[in-house]
Amino acid sequence: MKGVENVVAQEGIEVGIVSTITKLNFEELEDLVQFAKNIGADKFYAFNFIPTGRGKNIVDLDLTSKQREEMLNILYEHYHKGDIVCMTTAPQFARICIMSGNMERAPTSHYTFVHQLKER
Fold it and tell me: Which residues pair with 21 in a beta bridge?
């Protein structure tokens, strides 16, 4: 944590917090985003669980379709508010953003050039 705090304190360095979202931590998504905000991160990334390698043995931990939709909507709410840039490796995120009607904030991948402006 001290290392993250040191980087956050530096001018010109963007900090992102990353978590792979599964059934094990889905209920903690809001807390994870809030944690990223609290430490001063610029971005929060929600990675998809990809059941390869040893992950094949725990494929049942992947989100249900309903949970994934909820995750994407939660991320979009934060992204749209502009208090933290929320991104995901889920390609469906672009659909959520486009369906919101706000084309100015519709990333088409898990990376965006939208910069968070905040005082440090």
Answer: 48
